[in-house]
Design brief:
It is built from seven helices and five strands. By secondary structure, the protein is of the alpha/beta class. The longest helix is centred in the N-terminal third of the chain and has 17 residues, at about 5-20.
C-alpha cells in the first residue's frame, strides 16, 4: 500500500511552488494504485487568470489521458472543493487523501458517502501554510472558493 504521508509531500511541494509564483498554496498529485506518480500540479488561478485551474485539475490534466482512473489516489493539500470533488466523481478516482480540512471543508464527505475512500491526514504543515496565506489574502481566497 502506498504511503499517504509520502504522497502528501509531493502535493505540498506543488503548493510551495504555487506560493513562490505568487499564487494560492494548494497542491495536488495523482498516483496509480501502486504509488507511481501519474501527474502533479498546483492552483494557478492567480498566475494564469484561469478560474478552473485548481491544484487537482492541474494534476489531473498533467496526468494526461488514462484508460481508467479506478484504483488511483488524488492527494491534495486541502479538502477538494465541489468542482474538484466532481472531477473525482466523474472519473471514478478511487481514493482521495487530503492534507487538511480545517481551512476549508469541501466535498470530501459527499465523496465518502458515495463510497470513495477519503483519508484526512489533518497535517499541521498544510493547515499552517494555507491558514497563514488566507489571513494575508482574504479577498483572493474568497474569490477562489466562490464567496463574494
Amino acid at each position: 500500500m502506498p504511503d499517504d504521508r509520502a504522497m502528501l509531500q509531493v502535493a505540498l511541494e506543488e503548493a510551495r511552488i504555487g506560493l513562490a509564483a505568487g499564487g494560492i498554496p494548494i497542491g495536488a498529485a495523482l498516483f496509480a494504485a501502486d504509488g507511481t506518480l501519474v501527474g502533479r500540479g498546483h492552483n494557478q488561478r492567480v498566475q494564469l487568470g484561469d478560474p478552473s485551474l485548481h491544484g487537482e485539475t492541474d494534476a489531473f490534466r498533467k496526468a494526461g489521458r488514462q484508460r481508467s482512473y479506478r484504483g488511483m489516489t488524488m492527494v491534495t493539500t486541502l479538502s477538494p472543493c465541489w468542482y474538484c470533488s466532481g472531477l473525482v466523481r466523474q472519473f471514478n478516482i478511487s481514493r482521495v487523501v487530503l492534507g487538511e480540512s480545517v481551512n476549508f471543508h469541501g466535498g470530501h464527505d459527499w465523496l465518502a458517502g458515495l463510497g470513495f475512500e477519503v483519508v484526512d491526514l489533518a497535517d499541521e504543515t498544510c493547515i499552517d501554510l494555507l491558514g497563514g496565506w488566507i489571513a494575508a489574502n482574504p479577498f483572493v481566497w474568497n474569490e477562489d472558493i466562490g464567496v463574494s
